[in-house]
Structure formats: C-alpha cells, structure tokens
Design a protein that fits this description.
CATH class: Mainly Alpha
Radius of gyration: 20 Å
CATH superfamily: HPT domain
CATH topology: Four Helix Bundle (Hemerythrin (Met), subunit A)
Helix content: over 70%
Strand content: 5-15%
CATH architecture: Up-down Bundle
Distance between the termini: 44 Å
Strand order of the largest sheet: 1-2
Length: about 130
C-alpha cells in the first residue's frame, strides 16, 4: 500500500496533487511538441524548395535528419499518423541521401507527393 502523503522539500503533496501536476506537465510537453511542428514543417519546406532547384548534400542530410526525427518522435506524442507519413517519406528519400539513387523526375515526383502527404497530415493535427 502506498503512503497517503509524499514529503519533499518540507512540503506535503497528496497523490492526487502530484498526479495532477504530472498530468499537466505531460500535457504541456504534448502541446509544445504539436506547437513545434509548424516551424519544423516550414524548415522542411524551405529545404525542399532548395533541393528542388539544386541538389545540395548538406541540405539533403539535414532534411533527412529532420524527417527521421519526426518519424521517431511523433508517435511518442500520440501522432502515429504523422510518424507513419514521415517514415514513408524518409524511406523514399533515404536512397537519395545515401547516393543509392540519382535524383530523377519520377523519384522527385514520388518523394514530393509523400512530402505533401506529410505536410497535410501535420496540418490536420496542429490546426
């Protein structure tokens, strides 16, 4: 059986109060993550426009890293569909970054479509 009170720093907190505080912190983290997505999406959009005009390995690697980050983190914040969309884009884009594929029009169009799907999925969750 758990004690009815927790003592910390000479203050007493009931379990309910601690639970409420933890829940509030978790909700704040989830909210902060959602709020960060539009800025991250703007960065990805800018990188995509640059890559569309002229391929740059550094920009491509940064784009890939950010998409990979979304693929991994979004499900943690209960955005499984965002994570799935990012993972699809990551898998399609990875061969370009690792030089296993050349950037041709068909691959560009396929990858662009997946990027648009990621943007739409993110937009539906933050608006």
């Amino acid at each position: 059986m758990l004690p009815s009170m927790i003592h910390k720093n000479n203050h007493s907190y009931s379990h309910k109060t601690m639970s409420d505080e933890i829940q509030s912190r978790i909700e704040a983290l989830f909210g902060a993550y959602r709020e960060s997505l539009p800025g991250l999406l703007a960065e990805l959009d800018s990188a995509w426009i640059s890559l569309s005009a002229q391929w740059d390995d550094a920009i491509a690697k940064d784009f890939d890293r950010k998409v990979h980050g979304i693929a991994g983190s979004a499900p943690t914040f209960d955005l499984v569909d965002v994570g799935d969309a990012a993972k699809k884009l990551e898998l399609a884009f990875k061969p370009l970054v690792t030089k296993k594929s050349s950037f041709d029009e068909v691959l560009f169009n396929d990858t662009h479509q997946l990027f648009l799907e990621l943007k739409e999925t993110i937009s539906s969750k933050v608006n």
